[in-house]
Fold:
Amino acid sequence: MIETGRSEALFARARGLMPGGVNSPVRAMGSIGREHPIFIDRGEGCELVDVDGNRYLDWVCSWGPLILGHAHPRVVEAVREAAGRGTSYGAPTGAEVALAAEVCERLPSVEMVRMVSSGTEAAMSAIRLARAVTGRDPVVKFAGAYHGHVDGLLAEAGSGLATHGIPAGPGVTAGAAADTIVVPWNDRDAVAAALAERPVAAVICEPIAANMGVVQPAEGFLEHLRSAATDAGALLVFDEVITGFRVARGGVQELHGLEPDLTVAGKVLGGGLPAAAYGGRRELMERIAPAGDVYQAGTLSGNPLAVAAGLATLDELDAGNYARLGRLTEALAAGLRDAAAGLPVRVVSAPGLVTPFFSADPVRDFAGAAACDLEAHARFCRALLERGVYPPASQFEAWFVSLAHDDAAIERTIEAAREAFAEAFA
Ligand SMILES: Cc1ncc(COP(=O)(O)O)c(C=O)c1O
Structure:
């Protein structure tokens, strides 16, 4: 057993001061049957060191932003240098312009971009813009897709809600709920029916779903969404908060050669500091204030530290590193598949993302993910932690591969996983 006395003591104190003892629900480990989360002292490359001195291979990487791993020297230096010149001005900077140019250059459909501080804000603002542009209220989203804790997008939102079995309703107005139409991922007929029923402002999706575990779009599904949204006069919004700058330089839209009307980005964009963005075609984005009449603002938007971390991170993400990330991901996925041979486990991956589903059947939507053997998955996670491997403590989250991982880290993980799978199904 790993020694966790200090984590336990911190959690006992935290529970009296913060709801559930954490500042974001996915950090709690109750869903995998642990009495307390592991409190972190520091990150080094692909490893976490906890307050009791235990070391773990980290497959969470802050839930996605740390594509270069922890405390990457270039990112640390960029932040240090920026901080020395002031942490926030509330006025424009040249670095913001450089980051905007980088985002527009990488994401094929984005001509203009507005920076915000979180993916939630970015998704919320993109939906507001879609409503303003179309003059319509309803939004179509997919079951198991998470777009942040925006009132109208919480319905069947996968991620932390699914992990903790929390309904979307409490605190959400009836109006917000009524304006959200939830359809199953990969279900063309359901999309068509939703679009036929009411005039819809936007169809928002994670183009590779990653908050119900990783679920790829079925062949032709994204292309169908593109044409169905256009035909219905709705905007297509790709939430690439997880996939953007990760699955490819230009996200899923580059992989599939598709242009959504609006894109939401975050995570990797801020290199581990709070930054996110939404963007799209010029004529749409020029509706945003002060160019246009759709109001959206932020005291810390385009924050100099976050912009510096984002620029340093994106600068490392060249063709060679994307190829390496793809190779590492495939090695991890293949190794996990091998370690689970003969067991009811399906390992799914996209570049930089992996999910071992505890399911005998392929998972193609949220219902499939929800039907996984969550008890066995919880035992698997606990067994990995005991062996110094830190997985996302939820069946509904992706493992995040970073460029700080290497073949040795993958080998160690697969060895631990072999034993953990056996324990999970014992
Ligand atoms: C696809 C997606 N969209 C939006 C968000 C919300 O981002 P944030 O947590 O920065 O508000 C997340 C967060 O995990 C996400 O995965």
Q: What stands out?
A: The mean pLDDT is 96.
